[in-house]
Amino acid sequence: GERNPKKSPGLPCAEVTNIFDYIHQESHHHQVTKMCRILGVSRAQYYRYRSPKPSKRRAEDADLKQRILRIFAEFKQRYGVMKIHHELNLELQPLQLRCSPRRIIGYSFSKKMNTDLVLKTLENAVKNRTITGDLIIHTDLGSQYTSDDYNQRLTELHIRHSYSRKGCPYDNAPMESFHASLKKECVYPVPVFEDYETAAAVLFEYVHAILQ
Asked: What percentage of the chain carries pLDDT values higher than 90?
């Protein structure tokens, strides 16, 4: 038959958490409301103890985890810790993203790295950027960039040409960093592209869907 909670053996000491645990153990035999009244504890507190709300820290951690997973999926599982951390900062500081001057304004893709390719890239950039004032373009010392045709076009566009020093890629650090990220996140994960068109499509997606 039903036992009397007043006479239940092994009643814990009067610590609230122990009392709540005891009530839970005996809840199959006695009414929770009755035990709470007899043991001098609040029924509401008992139920809060049994079904605690997540702490603020735990809720924040859960939210952060979901944001990290969303960014990882959004960027095709290509982003590592540093890139994901950067995206999280941009979400917290959207004005910084809008004010940032660094973005891709022109690119081209070809089977050959020649003057025609860099000229095409230049024309693409000019279409996306209004040339005002004293504009400078910085490149390395590759033969494509030192060619007469390329520099003649820069002169026609009133663009000054700046070069990296020989053997000093750090002079063009932003583009070197971009190329390294592109290879690591877009090229290296794919052992072999099926064909040129597939590679071009992957590059297009990377530049437009991920970096812009």
From this structure: 8
